[in-house]
Amino acid sequence: MKPVIVMTQTSKIQSDLVEIVHKPFIQIQPLEIDARLLQNNYDWLIFTSKNAVSLFQPYMDKLQVKHIAVIGTKTAQLCRDLNINVDFVPEDFSQEGLLNDLKIQGQKVLIPSSAQARPKLQQQLTINNDVVKIDLYKPIPHKKNIHDVINMINNNEIEALTFSSSSAVRYYFNEGLPSDFNQYYAIGHQTADTLREYGIEPYIADKQTAEALINKVIESRNK
């Protein structure tokens, strides 16, 4: 029998190896942007998520930009699907990976992203570049899905609960901690560190992809 795992990110994942229950813990609330920021010429446009790509795509024809960098293969694939040319994808799918691999100075950089995005990317790039951040959206908790999953855990209906963002972790634990459950899985060390804040030592995917997360679930069950 296939293990039942809950995926809490907004994008849907399919797998023949496990039974996936898709329960996003985050809802996206689009924000109004300052159109004047689109009138500048930029050297780099940086997308850190698929949500950012989807919400910013309608503004692309208003923008003059030389290069585009994205974090993550799924984000890059969505760009290609929308005919957005991608020039750079870091090997490590994180803000730290991008900062490590993309060495730029004196550039005009635009980062459209979540209003609650980690500030490290913007802060580090600002040291040697002119950086503009646009708050495209803000995440809000999907409380119904969170309570559905807590009930599933209490009824022993799932084998693993996965997280790909710190916001989702916090929204989940704000609603209460299910008893006697320790099968938590994380994409990325930042998400894992947030789980540790709540006394959880999670399994961590070897790569920052949903596929690697699924493989980690299977690997841990076979030990």
UniProtKB/TrEMBL annotation:
Coiled coil start-end: none
Top EC class, one word: lyase
An example molecular function term from Gene Ontology annotations: uroporphyrinogen-III synthase activity
E.C. no: 4.2.1.75
Gene Ontology biological process terms in this record: protoporphyrinogen IX biosynthetic process; uroporphyrinogen III biosynthetic process
Ranges of residues in domain Tetrapyrrole biosynthesis uroporphyrinogen III synthase: 18-214
Pathway: Porphyrin-containing compound metabolism; protoporphyrin-IX biosynthesis; coproporphyrinogen-III from 5-aminolevulinate: step 3/4
Keyword Lyase: yes
Catalytic activity from the UniProt record: hydroxymethylbilane = uroporphyrinogen III + H2O
Keywords: Lyase, Porphyrin biosynthesis
InterPro entries per the UniProt record, alphabetical: 4pyrrol_syn_uPrphyn_synt_sf (IPR036108), 4pyrrol_synth_uPrphyn_synth (IPR003754), UROS/Hem4 (IPR039793)
Family the UniProt entry places it in: Belongs to the uroporphyrinogen-III synthase family.
Cross-referenced PANTHER family: UROPORPHYRINOGEN-III SYNTHASE, CHLOROPLASTIC
The protein's role, per its UniProt record: Catalyzes cyclization of the linear tetrapyrrole, hydroxymethylbilane, to the macrocyclic uroporphyrinogen III.
Official protein name in the record: Uroporphyrinogen-III synthase
Source organism of the structure: Staphylococcus petrasii
Lineage: Bacteria, Bacillati, Bacillota, Bacilli, Bacillales
